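debug: dumping io for the single-chain case to check the tokenizer round-trip. Nothing else runs in this session.
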Amino acid sequence: MPKKQLFYLTLIILMAALIWFLSNDKKSTISVENNFAICDTASVSKIFIADRNGTTITLNRNQKNWVVNNKYRVRKDAIKTILTTINQIRIQRPVSRKAFDNVIKNLATTGIKIEIYTNQETPEKTYTIGSSTSNHLGTYMFLAGSETPFVVHIPSFNGFLSPRYGIQGNKISEKGWRTTNIFSLKSENIARVIVNHIQQPEKSFSLTTDSMILLNNSGNEVSFNQEKVLSLLNAFKLLNCESYKNEKEKIEFSTPLHEVIVNNDTLRTYAIGNGKLLKDKKDNFTVKRMHATLNNGELMLIQDYVFNKVLITINQLE
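debug: decoded output
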């Protein structure tokens, strides 16, 4: 037999032997049982997330949307990201023996627990998310029932996975999941809009939609441009804040700017970093922003260009 044919025959035999060995290796830890992914994300009814600081997040699906901790609607982009992730994650490789002890220690001390339910009392998948690999292209995870942790990734995605589960610095936060939507009103459901410009009261106005009357700051009825009024009402269809803040005391010495009353809800805005309160480095933005509260609730950060469409003056309605 010619040497070239003998070489190819030997190669084929070796490949066949390798395939047989891998398919019959009882000690192999990569198997169907070690699959982290859920194929049908439409069946996912609940996702439970817990960090080592005692913070827990429960995402529940109802008929219309997702709710976090039975209190707030979940951001659509956030739930889409986590559902896409639990569908597309794949095992890249088992953790090497050299890294095994360190990875296990990291998972035990800082790992984030994930439980995914599919309309059952017991979770369909339970796993712990650890740190990223040194090249940040994989994430250490341990699937309940497995004998070893794995490096998990999303094929063709360059990055580690923990932020896609709402994890920042081994911590989770309810604020990171809740919707940033403040107003989502159809124009026909708006009975009144009052805009008070606190620093320039002469620019304030009050609009009632039942008989469509526009009043100035003195309570006198004034004429208006109907298209501009409809544009104002339609602006409340989708208004989102940028984020929620913990430090409500930031507005204690800040200059109040506006008060916007829509039906029975009151939005108040404040300048950032005025008075005795100095700007933090994180408040030095290139995009113009304001602080705000809704019904005197949590402190929010809002962007000028988003809210300028409703923080208008009476002159802009004429």
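debug: round-trip ok. Residues 181-317 form one domain.
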